[in-house]
Amino acid sequence: MQSLAQLRYSDISRAFKQAPWRVQIQLIASLAAIAIVIVALGGLYLIEASGAATAGRDVQSLQSQKAELELAIDRQRALIASAKSVARLEARARELGYTPAQAGQLDFVLVEGYYGPQLHVPVAAAPAPQPELPDYNETLGTWLAGVLSNVLGSGG
Amino acid sequence: MMAEAVRGRLKAMLGVFAVLIGLIIIRLVSLQFGSDVLYFENQYQLATGYLVTVTPPRGRIFDRSGELLATNDVKYALGLSPDFVTDPEGLAKILSSLLSRPYEEMYALTLKKPEGDIKYVLIQRPVSAEIGEKLLAMQRDPLGPDLSGLIVEPMQTRVYPGGTLASHVLGFVGLDNKGYYGIEEFYNDILAGHPVVGFQPVVPFDVALNPTPDQGADLYLTIDREIQYLAEQSLAKAVELYGAEGGEIIIMEPKTGRILALAVNPAFDPNNYLDDPNALKPNPAVSAQFEPGSTFKVLTMAAALQSGAVTPETTYQDVGYIEIGGVIIRNWDRAAWGTQDMVGILQHSLNVGTAWVSTEMGPKAFYDYMSAFGIGQVTNVDLSGEAAGHLKHPGDSDWYESDLGTNAFGQGIATTPIQLLAAMSAVANGGAVMQPHLLERVVDGDKVHTTQPQVLGRPISADVALTLSSILAVSVEREADGALLPGYSIAGKTGTAQIPIPGGYDGEKTIASFVGWGPVDDPRFIVLVKLDKPSASIWGSDTAAPTFGEMVKRLVVLMNIPPDDVRHQMAAQTAGQ
């Protein structure tokens, strides 16, 4: 009989390694580690994806809000402009007892030394222009005669 | 034996599976890289998003002071997807009550089957913002009525806060977002911007911002809305008072060509152009061609003075008629006015004298000058539909020698109101014809483009213009005192033009007009008043001239023009500073 002490270390070690429970534990641990990594990655993906989806929904909502606000601004602008129309302002002024001022109802006061922006100085007449009559009033014959006379003149 | 048979079957199955897997791989590769890629991409896009057309808001239109003349508002388009309507009776009832349309009609619409691939039935477009928003609120309310199948879409619409104010200047915008008539048509490309089409995914991960289109630019016009209102009120009053069929008033700065007001009667409401027959008529201020009549004598006289054919002191013997080219021309009153100088011709508006002046000039000079004034040519004012008028020339098949005499006093030629005003502004403006225009500046984001005044031509000298202005200032005092304004020097000329009809002229109806400007030594405004077929009086001096006089009482206030004496004191003070 071979005593335990006589067994070689390598034999014991092989027996230990090959123990079925040891192999299963290793497999389970590996799978568990992979599963944990996958779950962690999945979790991260879900977090990111839900964040992106929420942001996307927010963008959609903001775009819709922006469009609605732009329409509302247009409406308000149109209402204000309508309320400020000349006809409406004039009617309101008349209700309050005002009437449009006519030329003879104004008093102009000349303030010495004040040259306000409304001052309109008569400008000097524009330089005497030449009437814009057609530039070309000669016939082909007169042009030819002119050219010939020039040529003959310079030649002589 | 048994094991071999099993092994053989397994091999066969493996072979079949391998072939199947191979086919699948080939198909996958062909789907990914083959000719169907585009189809599948489209299918993917249809399933995960939609194409969106982003139309930029149309540019707004302001007057020269920045007051809104045209802006945008929202209205709604109502439509149906009949396949999705679950309560046709209830929906028809609501639509009928809100749109004031018969229940039966609405009910029939809810049951209408769309044709072809189009799954949309239009109910009404446009409907007011109030109705649209009410329907949207009902749709959002979980306890509200069942409006399944109803489509409520906002749509941009054009609004003109002033109603009929400057309607012929502005034109209108159709449901196709395109401008028609006036500024809206002329500057449509600038106002409308450029819509863009983009893909908008519905998958939240892929959501993108809507594409940004090129915005429409804002336009600032030379129109002053208060002066425009004054012109329209004055015109409407005159049309009623003198029983005219309509008319136009144009107010322009002679030194720059800026049009401050362009009023047309009858006007129309561009907010309701579909219901207004006047909306579809061209703007008569730039497109209606008419024989100008005696106002044209100013141009004839200007040409005669410039050409040296006459001087203000030149006299002729008015025997009551003159024969030119076999046609007898008579004065408006058929009277003989004896010895008259050039002042007398304009003061008494003598046809015979004007015709005589034209013969002194001769046809070539006369027509050359009229062309130089721009008669018979478009002014290129920035409004759609401008007509050129008509000026015959010697040598034309329809020109006769007698035309020289009749054309001289504005008969037998055709001008538009804007053309006549532009031509006559040369007399007010030291001889220069300015380009009439309505656009002051374009504001496109942070870019601003300002229109500069442009000289179209200088048919007469400043001396001739000043001389003629002085003559017209005197003659208006005697011929049309209704046009005068105490404290202000005004020059002008009346016109009473016959209306051509087939075979001659209308014996009863006329076109009455007056063109005037002031102050004479520093003209700030030139005004054309034209009344069509006034029944109270046929004469321009009785109708158009008083309309001018009444209007300029307010005009000088709105334009902040002091009386001549104050203005001269101010000028003296400025000169002495």
**CATH superfamily placement of the largest domain in chain B:** DD-peptidase/beta-lactamase superfamily
Helix-strand category of chain A: mainly alpha
Q: Strand share of the residues of chain A? A: under 5%
Which second-level CATH architecture of the largest domain in chain B applies? 3-Layer(aba) Sandwich
Major β-sheet of chain A, in short? none
Give the low-pLDDT segments of chain A.
Answer: 119-129
Q: Give the end-to-end Cα distance of chain B, rounded to a whole number of Å.
A: 131 Å
**Which CATH class of the largest domain in chain B applies here?**
Alpha Beta
Structural class of chain B: alpha+beta
Question: How much helix, percentage-wise, in residues of chain B?
Answer: 25-40%
Number of E strands of chain A? 0
Radius of gyration of chain B: 35 Å
Shape of chain B: elongated
Total number of helices of chain A: 4
- Nearest-integer average pLDDT of chain B: 91
Radius of gyration of chain A: 52 Å
Helix content range of the residues of chain A, please?
A: 55-70%
| Count of distinct structural domains of chain B | 2
- Described by its quaternary structure, the protein is heterodimer
Mean pLDDT of chain A: 78
Measured between the Cα atoms of the first and last residue of chain A, the distance is 153 Å
Written overview of the protein:
- The complex is a heterodimer of chains A (156) and B (577).
- With 156 residues, chain A is mainly α.
- Chain A has a domain at 7-93.
- In chain A, 63% of the residues lie in helices and 0% in strands.
- Chain A has helices at 9-17, 20-83, 86-95, 140-155.
- Chain A is elongated, with a radius of gyration of 52 Å.
- With 577 residues, chain B is α+β, with helices and mostly antiparallel strands.
- Chain B has 2 domains: 59-200 and 215-220, Alpha-Beta Complex (Penicillin-binding protein 2a (Domain 2)), CATH 3.90.1310.10; 225-272 and 283-439 and 451-576, DD-peptidase/beta-lactamase superfamily (Beta-lactamase).
- Helix content of chain B is 37%, strand content 23%.
- In chain B, strands 2, 3, 4, 5, 9, 17 and 18 form a 7-stranded mixed beta sheet that branches. Chain B has a 5-stranded antiparallel beta sheet with strand order 11-10-22-21-20, with helices on both faces. In chain B, strands 1-8 form a two-stranded antiparallel ribbon.
- The mean pLDDT of chain B is 91.
- Classes of the chains: A mainly alpha (156), B alpha+beta (577).
- At the A-B interface, helix 2 and helix 3 of A face strand 3, strand 5, helix 9, helix 14 and helix 17 of B.
